[in-house]
Amino acid sequence: MRYAYFATVTEDPDGGFIVTFDDVPEAITAGDTREEALSNARDALGLALRGILAETRHLPMPQAAEGAPISVDADVAAKLAVVQAFRDAGISKSELARRLGKSENEARRLLDPDHPSKIGPLQDALRALGMQMFVTVQAAA
Q1: Are residues 82 and 52 in the same domain?
Q2: Which range marks the domain in which residue 94 is found?
Q3: Model's pTM, two decimal places?
């Protein structure tokens, strides 16, 4: 899955700018300038998506086709992918730990949306779940 969504930026009548996401209504943020609001949008989007997973809901598929494209940071995208792949696999945390050759506590931390994890162990977890991560870099909008 691609963890990028289109954001709508509107001027706030009280000053500044507000950013919302049609596909992720939980993600809303603002800033004094358009640039600041868009910068804050990345964090707001990542926080909202992690919250959706923490509530054991499925992540929304990006549907909107207009607006400012916002993607979550790479480590957040990897975490989201691991949690979703684990759920789709239908295995236990102890089975994931066994596949990784790690303790169940380590597997639990990898699956905790709010626990920071390094990209390497997240990639290992994705491989153990039969997934592969590709990184794409492009010019900023």
Answers
A1: no
A2: 74-128
A3: 0.87
